[in-house]
Design a protein that fits this description.
The protein is an alpha/beta fold. It has five helices and three strands; from the N terminus they run H-E-H-H-E-H-H-E. Helix 1 runs parallel beside helix 3.
C-alpha cells in the first residue's frame, strides 16, 4: 500500500478526534469529509486510494452516529474529477468521454460545502458530485 494512500485515511482519522472533542464542547457543528467517486467505483488511480476514500466514508458514518446527540453533523462529499493542479497534470479521457464533456469545477464543490454548512437536518450522507458518472 502506498504511504500516500495510507496517510490519506490516517490523517482524517487523526484530525477527527480532536475536532470532534472541540465541537462537542460547542454543542453544535459540522464535520465535512472529502471522499471520492473512487470509494464506490475503484477509481482510476489505485486500489489503495479507493480503499482510503471508502475508509473516510466509514469514519464519517461513525461520527454521524456518535456526535448526533451534540447536534454535530458529519457528511462527506465524493466528487469525480475536479479541475485542480493534480487533475490538470493527469492524462484525462477525451471530452466526449467525460460527463458534460468536462471535469468538475471547484465552485461546484464549494456550493455543496455551503449547503452542508447551512443544513442541520443532514448527517451521515455522502453527496456525489460527478455529473452522473456514479448514481445512487
Amino acid at each position: 500500500m502506498s504511504y500516500t494512500r495510507l496517510l490519506n485515511w490516517a490523517v482524517e482519522l487523526w484530525r477527527s478526534k480532536p475536532m470532534s472533542v472541540s465541537l462537542v464542547k460547542s454543542i453544535d457543528g459540522r464535520l465535512i469529509y472529502m471522499s471520492s467517486i473512487a470509494a464506490r467505483t475503484g477509481g482510476m488511480v489505485s486500489a489503495a486510494y479507493a480503499a482510503s476514500k471508502a475508509g473516510i466514508e466509514g469514519l464519517m458514518h461513525y461520527y454521524a452516529t456518535f456526535l448526533l446527540p451534540y447536534r454535530i453533523t458529519a457528511n462527506a462529499i465524493a466528487p469525480a474529477l475536479i479541475a485542480s493542479d493534480i487533475v490538470n497534470e493527469m492524462k484525462l479521457p477525451p471530452p466526449d468521454e467525460l460527463p458534460l464533456g468536462r471535469v468538475g469545477r471547484p465552485e461546484e464543490i464549494w456550493s455543496t460545502v455551503r449547503m452542508i454548512l447551512e443544513t442541520e437536518y443532514l448527517t451521515g450522507q455522502t453527496i456525489h458530485i460527478n455529473a452522473g458518472r456514479y448514481m445512487t
